[in-house]
Amino acid sequence: MPKRITYHVLPKPDGTWGVKKAKAKRMAFVSAKKPAVIRKAKSLAKKNKLGQVKIHDHHGKIEFEWTYGKDPERFPG
């Protein structure tokens, strides 16, 4: 079974925003506008059969999350 690929939308210290694939060293896309980076992250995630986008705020906390393909199973707890 293929693994889910996660893309994170993160703020950079210089005030711009970037999209970074999980465990990657560099940003895949950078822009001054957060909505442009979100659109790019969503398009990258949709290209994969299993993709996920996590949007972070300026403090590193996750604001929103989108999952494409089969949703991961939820476990009670």
Q: What is the topology?
A:
Elements: E1 5-11, E2 17-21, E3 29-31, H1 34-47, E4 51-56, E5 62-68
Parallel strand pairs: 1-4
Antiparallel strand pairs: 1-2, 2-3, 4-5
Write a brief structural summary:
The chain is an alpha+beta fold and 77 residues long. The protein has one helix at residues 34-47; strands spanning 5-11, 17-21, 29-31, 51-56, 62-68. The model has no long low-confidence stretch (mean pLDDT 89).
What is the radius of gyration? 13 Å
Please give the share of residues in helix. Answer: 10-25%
Task: Choose one word for the global shape.
Answer: globular
Largest sheet: 5 strands, mixed
- Spatial strand sequence of the major β-sheet: 3-2-1-4-5
Low-confidence stretches: none
Structure report:
The mean pLDDT is 89. This protein has a domain at 1-47. The chain has 1 helix and 5 strands, in the order E-E-E-H-E-E. The chain is globular. It has 77 residues and is an alpha+beta fold. The two termini are 25 Å apart. A 5-stranded mixed beta sheet has the order 3-2-1-4-5, covered by helices on one side. 18% of the residues lie in helices and 36% in strands.
